[in-house]
Amino acid sequence: MTPSSPRSGPFRSVLYVPGDKLRAIEKARTLEADAVILDLEDAVAPEFKAQARENVREALQTPWRVPVLVRVNGLGSEWAHDDRELALTAGAAGLVLPKVEDAHSVHALSLGLPLWAMIETPRGVLSAPAIAAVPGVAGLLVGTNDLARALRSRPHPDRLPLLHALSAVVLAARAAGKLPLDAVHNDVRDPDGFARECEQGRTLGFAGKTVIHPGQIAAANAAFGVSDAEAAEAHALIAAWDEARAQGRSVAPHRGALVEQMHVDEAQDTLRLWEGTRGEGGE
């Protein structure tokens, strides 16, 4: 067990924290995000890369309540090798690799550490099924800022130009049994817009959302979590199924609908998520 990954669990909210901001790193320890990404890439200016790496190394020496991933600089950059060495030796729970565009580059790393591939370009979206299928890849994270720029799309409150790409990433990740995580919402002064994106992401099939501000964590946890009412309904559905099975029936009536095994499996997934987040400040 590494210092940064005391447990496995949900990834409803995953907080990016700039590696060069010591106060932000310490603040992150007190927050209710399900995981933290200590960022050495976009959030850190070139002149602060080395100091950020040392900050992250030091931060990983002390146990965290949640898994801590490290976002390294991209393959081919002057910082890439040292960043990866840090993630491998300092006790990170996983490595976040930006702008992944093909499965071969991921295969070639062979790090032995869970890898989270960022899908941020048109080529990355088209290659997402192959990337997700690589052994060692734990999940796919969408980066819509770079993707929107590459697509030459216009901003839209419902992310309409990006819906195909978002769904493609979810499909690729779920087909490979990996976790898809939705992109950040840039405007931290727009809680209503953030809540809409969370609801949309949950509807599309994302497991959680990456966030950039502490004020976004609670909304993400709520949107991608399970309420007590939803858990109670899952219990009721399973009870109806168990009763039907005890009577030798292969389907069960429940609230005007017929319940089959797939509905029971979904209810059990709901309860696992609910149980995994109880008592952690979430749902």
UniProtKB/TrEMBL annotation:
One example of a Gene Ontology biological process annotation? oxaloacetate metabolic process
Show where the HpcH/HpaI aldolase/citrate lyase domain sits.
12-214
Binding residue positions for Mg(2+): 120, 146
One of the record's GO molecular function terms: lyase activity
Top-level division of the source organism's lineage: Bacteria
What SUPFAM superfamilies does UniProt report for this protein, alphabetically?
Phosphoenolpyruvate/pyruvate domain
User: Quick one: which residues bind substrate?
Assistant: 71, 120
PANTHER family linked to this entry: CITRATE LYASE SUBUNIT BETA, LYASE BETA SUBUNIT, PUTATIVE (AFU_ORTHOLOGUE AFUA_4G13030)-RELATED
This protein's name: CoA ester lyase
